[in-house]
Structures are given as C-alpha cells and as structure tokens.
Specification:
alpha+beta, about 200 residues, 4-stranded antiparallel β-sheet, globular
Length: about 200
Amino acid sequence: MSVTFTAAHRPASRFAASCGCARATEFAARHRTYEAALAEVLAAPLERDAMPGCEMPDICPQYPLMVHDVDPDGDVPEVNVSAHNAVRLADLLGFAAVELAGPAAAPGTTRYEGDTTSGTGTYSAAGDAGQIPAGDFLGRVLLALALTPEDAGVDGYWSGRVHLGGRSAGYLQRRLLELHDLAQWCASRGRDVVWG
C-alpha cells in the first residue's frame, strides 16, 4: 500500500483519445467533450501506428485507445510514498501521528525501530489521508525541513512474515523537498494539497 500526495481534483477541461501513456496523452488532440473524444476512439482503425510521443512505440498499436481527461492546469505533480514512510512524513508534518502510552500497540500501528529521526514510541497510522490549503501545507513542509535532522536512513526488518522496508539516507529530506515543490505548484494555482 502507498499514499499519494497531489493537488485536489478539478473537473477535466478537455478530453484526449490516447493509448494511456503520459507523453502520448500530452500530444493527443484535445476535445471539448467526452463524447467527441469517444467518437475519435470509436473511429480509430483496428490496426494503427504508435501514438505520437508514445513511450512504448513497439507495443502501443496493441493497446486500445481510451478517453483520458485532461486537468485544466496540465500535468499535476504527485509524490507517492509507501504507507510506512507516509506515517513518518505525516508525523513530521504534524498530522495526527500520536505517540501511544505503554508497550502494547494498537492495531494498525507501526514501530520505528532504529529510526533516529523519530521518538521511541509507537505511532498511529492516522493522518494517512486528508486535504489542506496549499499555503498551510507549505508552512508545515518548511517547518519540517528546518527541524528534521539529516535522515541517516533505516535498515529494513522483518515483523513475522512481513518485511518492512527501510529508508535510504536522506530519504526524508528528498521527499520533503518534493512535497515543497508540490505545495508551491498547488499554491500558484489556488488548489489544496490532498493525500490518500
């Protein structure tokens, strides 16, 4: 499982008929309505060439064309992290990751063994979905960047039959910088930051 940070949804302003890869969709003709894009899909020959700009031109003709909506602001940035790391980022950003008292952990919690950037307790997986104005999110990211010590990384470990992957050194700072860029993109377009 993972958590994706991105901009709040806005209804599509245009539609494109494409094989689905981002570059082919970017180069495809824009239609004002879904129905017009669907007419292009239905009129496409069964045997066709690769879409202009397709990232996989060798197999593109084997994929059916589909209608894809186009965001009014263009290509929307996304930051995708594992659920385990999302809880850590939520804690750094101050979103409902609370320390539990006592040695017993509630269901759905994660222990950060060997993690020098967190406390010694167990943290709740709360804060794994939400929405906040971009300016507020940007403030939280800037504060986290200023206060978070350099991430030394964490080795992965086994919990029963499940392997909980670690983090490479500097991972948290790299992700916080990506979240900073996302927050600025959203703020410049008047959109909230969402995650889930």
